[in-house]
Specification:
This protein has eleven helices and nine strands. By secondary structure, the protein is of the alpha+beta class. It has a five-stranded antiparallel β-sheet. The longest helix has 16 residues. The N and C termini lie far apart (74 Å).
Length: 357
Amino acid sequence: MASTTFTPASTQPPPAPLNSDTPSTPATALPPLPPNSSSYAAAATTSPSSVSSHIFPPDLEVTPTPPGGFPIPQIGCSVWKNINHMVRASWTIKPGPKVWARVWKARYEDDHQPTLTKIQTLVEKIAGPGVATTLCVSVPVAAERLREKLPPPWHYLISNIPQSLADFLGRQVVVSTPDVTCFFLPFDPPLPTYLCTLENFALPCTTEANNTVAEVVKATLLCDHEGISFIEERLENPGTSAVERAINPPDLSLPDFFTWACKVRCTEFIMEDYGRGTAHIGDKQLICLCCKSLDHPTGLCPFTSLSGWLGPASQSVTTDERNMVERDRECPRKSGQRGVIRGRYHKRGSLRGLGRR
């Protein structure tokens, strides 16, 4: 079966999972997130005046927003990952509205000037001449060298801007021009809505099958007493709602959310007729090198298929980025031919007894 991506949203009473010790408690229906919905809007407080005070300048060619909005990249780490602690302390206390920005296929670079110039030029065009002279784009400093492909930190910090511009950028999710593709996040980003991608269920890749898997996942979580206790300890008003929030947890801190997500990702989901489902973890976890999302591989990045997309074309890992082991996998294995070398230059037995009488 093709893998199923699970995001926590409850719409129907879940069925009981196989071998459950406790009968499942029907969960109260919670409003699901609409397709391509963005919780960024809740994170960025906007008003009619701030919405209308900033628009894209007419001379700036950008990818149009698709119906329903842009896909939301599901980043599996903090925006602060691997940022030097002194820089982090300084950025945290910067006054005024702030916004994060990262470019397409971001990676940490010692020479920030090319990327910095692209981001700063884009934001200055959007901000207009009045703000362009005062805004500040700060470059990240890595705490250490990480041995991974396209390592973080990825995010630049935009500060010294009016709240209306911060709200405007936070709502865009991505701004793609012929010169640069830039993702924007509020300074306090919302939690991801992605939990895991499941595999090994003996089901076809259909909407009905995926809905069935989602209901089994919900039912399994409702029987997870450890997970429910974890959520209950973090509720402001503990009670019966903790059971309901085992599926849709409250506004956890990012470390608590990752801890809860890890519990879900390490759980096996058993169906009576269709096998045992497990999550992609470790080296099997999907990750897009372009937008940094965990819910799809690089070659299937949804941004590149958008109508009017001005950013880079869809691609997998380019040739110059493949390491030796990855190149080995692509090289056809050659079978040895016994005896080809032996005797090519030395006929068998030709040296036997040489110099002996």
